[in-house]
Amino acid sequence: MRMQGSVPFRGGGFAPRAVPAAGAATLIGLIAVWQLASWAGWLPTLFLPAPQAITIALYRLAVSGELWTHLSASLARLAIGWSLGTVAGLALGFAVGLFSVVRSPGMAVVSALFPVPKIALVPLFIIWFGIGEGSKIATLAFGVFFPTVINTAGAVDNVPRALIRMAQGFNLSRLSIIRKIILPGALPAILSGCRITTSVAIILLVAAEMIGAEHGIGAFVLAAGNLYDTDNLLAGIVVLSMLGLAVSWTIGRIERALLGWR
After folding, report:
1. DSSP label at residue 216
2. In tens digits, what is the pLDDT along the chain, a chain of 262 residues?
């Protein structure tokens, strides 16, 4: 009697793994191609400086201290504006997801105001809060608030109702159900939404700083562009890109810390 071979396991499902080395290699490869194209003369340096020139510009900005002056101003605005918008958005999003009395009025207001381009409201915020920090922080908080509300309410709605009914069947209190079932079930989607809102906040930060700011990465990029100083302009854009990568890495670490139970 012939023995049959073992059947390969087919239940792994779709579980893509992150390979940081592959991502780093891709970025390094693109930069290398860019540098080689500049050396070969295929890219005019006036319009697109080589990575080497951008690196030199970043080094000079760092040594002079100008980079840290602009970066610290932008980081402070980003932290305050994003935190205010996120906290307020989480509060309303959970209220919309949990309470019928808030759901329809809250979503009506959010749906009416969310499509409004937040950049168009910057002049209005300047009238309300002045040309200083208030208008810039308000722009960031307003832009982060609405997607956070929508994402949080959707995350709460997607928590399996069978788990909630089971908890109610065991006579758990409403607070216990929220803390032990709804919050853990909604947390993955909420943290994924934070990745989006941080990107939105960085975009709005640059726009607000370009309109009226003495210090900040957005103001620096605008000044470099007005002078056709493409080396510093691209250096500022690289700083913004690195800022986005740093924020994304931080949120990823938070996800691994809070969602280890998955």
Report:
1. S
2. 455 556 665 655 566 777 778 878 888 899 899 889 888 888 887 778 888 889 999 999 999 989 999 999 999 999 999 999 999 999 999 999 888 898 889 889 888 888 888 888 888 888 888 888 888 899 999 999 999 999 999 999 998 888 888 888 888 888 888 888 888 889 989 998 998 999 999 999 998 888 877 888 989 999 988 888 888 999 999 999 899 889 888 888 888 888 776 6
Q: Where are the alpha helices (DSSP H) in the chain?
A: 20-39, 51-64, 66-98, 100-113, 122-129, 133-157, 161-169, 174-177, 183-211, 217-226, 230-258
- The rounded distance, in Å, linking the Cα atoms of 129 and 135 is 5
> Tokens 């990107």 appear where?
199
**Nearest partner of 232 among 119, 67, 34, judged by Cα:** 67
* Domain-wise residue ranges, the chain: 87-258
Domain 87-258: homologous superfamily in CATH? MetI-like (1.10.3720.10)
Angle between helix axes 100-113 and 66-98 (nearest 10 degrees) is: 140
